[in-house]
Design goal:
The complex is a heterodimer of chains A (388) and B (232).
Chain A: H1 5-14, H2 16-49, E1 55-60, H3 73-80, E2 95-105, E3 114-121, H4 123-128, E4 133-137, E5 146-150, H5 151-156, E6 165-168, E7 171-180, E8 189-193, H6 194-200, E9 209-213, H7 217-229, E10 235-239, H8 240-245, H9 252-283, H10 285-294, H11 298-324, E11 331-335, E12 342-346, H12 351-378, H13 381-386
Parallel strand pairs in A: 3-8, 5-7
Antiparallel strand pairs in A: 1-9, 1-10, 2-3, 2-9, 4-7, 5-8, 6-7, 11-12
Helix pairs in contact in A: 1-11, 2-9, 2-11, 2-12, 9-11, 9-12, 11-12
Chain B: E1 4-17, E2 20-33, E3 37-41, H1 48-55, E4 63-68, E5 71-72, H2 78-88, E6 89-92, H3 104-109, H4 119-132, H5 148-160, E7 166-170, H6 178-195, E8 198-202, H7 206-209, E9 214-219, E10 222-226
Parallel strand pairs in B: 3-8, 3-9, 6-7, 7-8
Antiparallel strand pairs in B: 1-2, 1-4, 4-5, 9-10
Classes of the chains: A alpha+beta (388), B alpha/beta (232).
Bound molecules: adenosine-5'-triphosphate and magnesium ion (MG).
Residues 48-49, 170 of chain B line the site of magnesium ion.
């Protein structure tokens, strides 16, 4: 570099108040963008972590979610004897009849309550979810009004702590365990005994869905085709993974809004950077003239002021990243438009996201620096020297 | 042997701004030889600075020719002109024009950034120049930590660090007290006498002009009389 970068850095330090103000504006812009992306990334990670690659979710034709699907015991009997279903060590097929419903949980943040998924299942259903383990307390016992809550819920809802009671259906239920579902959706659900829940809700004949595991990839597709084609069933079969991945779209409105706000802020921040750089060019007019007399070219001047603008915005980018860093692993919830219940997950700030934030800051630096830097480069030597 | 370093023919510079039309230089024919120390004098607005700027390729004439170091400045493009200035011209300003955020050493090193010299060589050259102006012990001072006289000596060091053929100074003592002015003038004289540099200095001060080997007078853009050069 012809004009040393230290020249730019020192000038940024000299006018530190302006530098910090401008950088802070950029930092906030970057922080808004990053938090939105961290949220989407967290949701995506969480949803893609849910589900076994060989799992098939069977729901009524036309149902978009387990909540609006229905399933009878008879249909389940037909499904569980299909070819290509893996077996448990005890010889039972890996087919889990489940009932999904929602209950309302209040929290300090949401006094009016939020929909939470409540899943009734059998020991088979629990066994098929190997990624779910009991973190505290114990498993619910069949035939009892007992609940196991996801750790995300336990963390966010004081009412859903181990040892408390929840009141719904025909009476109180005891929370006997907290389950750790890794990053998966189980963290934001409550599990209980299928038969108990079905009788409590009068839904012995109107259950929700069946989860089955195929023996291998090859038989998985065949099994899905067989299920869909079976006229007696009138069922749809999707892979569990794709079912959850599709729910990432629940974040689309937030993502859209976040990007929209960030872009508006970025335009403002670019103007702030531009203003700061114009002031710098005006203030250092005589220096620009001197540099030109010493033999530095117009291009050299242009590059130098561009670098200064980029440095300024890079500083903003770094501060922005630092601002959102505490969000990493911060647990939050989002209402799903598919399950109509809240989904709990952690913000995730990945190196890729930070890189994107820095790039965003640099784009602001380029936009903000371009006009001031080229005005500096265009100055005639004598005009520049005379302006003080 | 005398060799013309600067040769102007019918050199004219006009400034046209809105309805104002200023003739800053009118048909100036001036020859300055290698090794001369020329003082340019004249009342304010007589075109002294304008002439110096044209010699330094900081501006272009309206008409006429100017040949500096056998180079017709007309023929140089923007980029070549910048390079040419860096190689051949050392310019000294009335207001020093040091870069405030750079130390004395960094200021002096700055023009060398445009050469192929390595960092170590650049520092060596800059130190040599600073020692020559007697500021070897002030290298890490920022301009605001120096007195005006010291600042101007740093500026002189910066002007000579590239070993230019021509040293141009526009009222170099204009902002200095008598003692500092004396130091600066002694330095210019030394550069001229001991190092053979051609020096052109604009000044209002007859005492400063007395250091020169020749004094040229400008009046309203016209070169008035030329006292015979002592070098000739
Ligand atoms: N960029 C410019 N635009 C318009 N007029 C100019 C410009 N530069 C110089 N002039 C005019 O040209 C004339 C000569 O100016 P110049 O600066 O060369 O004078 P000078 O002899 O150096 O004066 P001083 O002793 O005050 O420095 C003046 O009338 C000045 O107003
Ligand atoms: Mg002048």
């Amino acid at each position: 570099m012809k004009i040393p970068i230290s020249y730019n850095i020192r000038n940024l330090i000299i006018r530190r108040t302006t530098t910090m103000m401008t950088a802070l504006g950029i930092a906030l812009t970057v922080a808004v963008l990053l938090s939105v992306f961290a949220l989407v990334e967290g949701l995506r990670t969480s949803l893609t972590a849910t589900g076994h690659p060989l799992h098939i979710l069977v729901m009524r034709k036309g149902a978009t979610a387990e909540l609006n699907s229905s399933m009878t015991q008879e249909q389940f009997q037909t499904i569980k004897v299909k070819q290509g279903i893996a077996g448990l060590p005890n010889g039972e097929p890996m087919a889990s009849l489940e009932l999904v419903t929602v209950i309302i949980l209040e929290s300090p943040d949401n006094p009016s309550g939020i929909n939470i998924s409540l899943r009734g299942l059998t020991t088979t259903g629990f066994a098929m979810r190997e990624y779910v383990r009991i973190a505290e307390g114990r498993m619910f016992q069949p035939g009892r009004r007992e609940l196991v809550v996801g750790k995300g819920l336990a963390k966010r809802y004081p009412k859903a702590r181990l040892g408390s009671k929840l009141d719904f259906g025909r009476g109180e239920w005891d929370i006997v365990g907290v389950m750790d579902g890794g990053q998966s959706a189980a963290n934001s659900e409550i599990f209980c005994d299928l038969a108990q829940l079905a009788s409590d809700q009068n839904r012995e004949s109107g259950l929700s869905s069946v989860l089955i595991r195929a023996t291998d990839r090859a038989s998985m597709q065949a099994l899905m085709n067989n299920l869909v084609d079976d006229q007696r069933l009138n069922m749809d079969a999707v892979s569990e993974k794709s079912y959850y991945e599709a729910q990432t779209s629940s974040a689309a409105p937030i993502q859209f809004l976040g990007i929209f706000v960030a872009i508006i802020m970025a335009i403002g921040s670019s103007f702030a950077a531009m203003n700061t750089m114009y002031a710098a060019v005006a203030r250092r007019s005589a220096e620009i003239g001197t540099l030109r007399v010493l033999g530095f070219s117009r291009t050299g001047i242009l590059i130098s002021f561009m670098i200064e603008s980029l440095l300024l915005c890079l500083l903003g980018g770094i501060i922005g990243c630092l601002l959102v860093l505490p969000l990493n692993n911060f647990t939050t919830g989002i209402g799903s438009f598919i399950t109509f219940s809240e989904f709990t997950f952690n913000f995730r700030i990945t190196p890729g996201i930070m890189l994107m934030g820095m790039t965003f800051a640099l784009v602001m630096g380029i936009l903000g620096g371009l006009f001031p830097a080229s005005s500096a480069a265009r100055k005639e030597i004598l005009t520049a020297l005379r302006e003080i | 042997m005398t060799e013309a370093v600067i040769k102007t023919r019918q050199l004219t510079k006009e400034f046209i701004r809105d309805e104002f039309h200023v003739v800053a230089l009118k048909d100036v024919n001036l020859t300055i030889n290698q090794g001369e120390f020329v003082a340019l004098m004249g009342p304010s607005g007589s075109g002294k600075s304008t002439l110096l700027h044209l010699i330094a390729a900081m501006d272009r004439p309206t008409s006429g020719d100017i040949l500096v170091l056998n180079q017709s400045l007309r023929d140089l493009g923007e980029r070549e002109m910048a390079h040419w200035r860096n190689r051949h011209i050392g310019f000294i300003f009335q207001s020093f024009n040091l870069i405030p955020v750079m130390s004395a050493l960094e200021n002096v090193e700055l023009p060398l950034k445009l050469t192929n010299l390595k960092k170590k060589e650049r520092i060596e050259h800059a130190m040599t120049a600073l020692n020559l102006v007697g500021l070897g012990d002030r290298v890490n001072h920022l301009p605001r930590q120096l007195s005006g006289g010291q600042e101007q000596r740093v500026a002189i060091a910066r002007a000579i660090v590239t070993d230019p053929d021509l040293i141009l100074a526009d009222e170099p003592t204009g902002n200095l007290d008598a003692a500092s002015a004396q130091e600066a003038l002694t330095l210019l004289e030394k550069l001229n006498r001991d190092y053979g540099k051609t020096v052109v200095m604009v000044t209002h001060d007859p005492h400063a002009a007395s250091f020169a080997s020749r004094v040229c007078h400008l009046g309203k853009g016209v070169l008035l009389e030329q006292e015979p050069s002592l070098a000739q």
